Amino acid sequence: MRWVTLSAVALAVATVPTAHAQGPQGFFTNLLNNFDSRGNYEAAPYEVVKTTGQYEERNYPAKKWVCTEGQGRDGDDISNGMFMKLFRYISGGNSQEESISMTVPVSTQVSRDSSTQITTKRMCFYIGEIHQANTPQPTDAQVFIENRQAFTIFTRQVPGYMNNNEWDEEVVALSNILNTAGESFNPAPYWTVGYDSPMKFWDRRNEVWFTKN
What pLDDT shows up at residue 150? Predict the structure, then answer.
C-alpha cells in the first residue's frame, strides 16, 4: 500500500466542492506544500523503551488522530480512497476551513474477519501539536477525531514501496521475530505505517506495529 498514487490525487482535486473556501486551487496548493520529497514532516512523538538488532519497543503518549474507516475483501486496495478523505480534511474540509500541515506517520489499523474474509482498515493522520488542544472537527461524516490512548508497540523499519503482499510478509516476519524473542504482544489488530510521500524514492520508512500485552 502506497500512501496514494499521483493520479488519484489529481482526480481528487476535481472532486473538491467549488463552494468550499479554498476550492480546487487551494486543495492543489496544499497538495504541493504537503508532499515534501525530503520528508520534513512533524512526527507523532514517542519514547524508545528498548532497541535490539532486530526490533524496537516504543511508548506513544495519548494524542489525537484524524481517522476514517473502510472495508473490503482480502486483497482489495481501499487505501487510496481513505487517504483522500483525510487529505481533504487537512486541506480545509474541517470546521475552521483551515489548511493543516501534513504529519507522519500515516497509521492504518488492520482487522481481518477470517469467517467472512472481510478486512476493516482504520487509517489515521496524526494531529500536529498546534491543533491537539483545539482540533478542528471534520465536515465529512466519514471522518472522525480519535482520542488515541497511550500505548506501547513493537516494530522495526523496512524500506521501499509496500504492496498488500509485502505488508503481509512483514506481519509474518516481525511476528516470528517477536515470538522467538519471547515478547508478549497482540497479533491482531496490527498497524501498517508509512512515513513518506510518493515522491520520495530512496530511504523510505515503513513499519508494522504490534501492541504489547
Answer: 98
pLDDT surpassing 90 at residue 105? yes
Report the CATH number that the domain containing residue 141 is assigned in CATH.
3.20.80.10
Is 1 a member of any domain?
no
Between CA 53 and CA 141 the distance in angstroms is 43
Domain carrying residue 66: 6-212
User: What is the chain's alpha carbon radius of gyration, rounded to the nearest angstrom?
Assistant: 17
Please count the CA atoms within 13 angstroms of the CA of 23 that sit on its side-chain side.
3
- pLDDT digit string, tens, across residues 49-69: 999 999 999 999 999 999 999
> Which residues of 52-105 form beta strands (DSSP E)?
56-60, 63-73, 103-104
Q: Residue 89, SS3?
A: helix
Number of domains the chain contains: 1
Does residue 205 lie within any of the structural domains? yes
Instruction: Give me the residue label for grid cell 500512501.
Output: 3
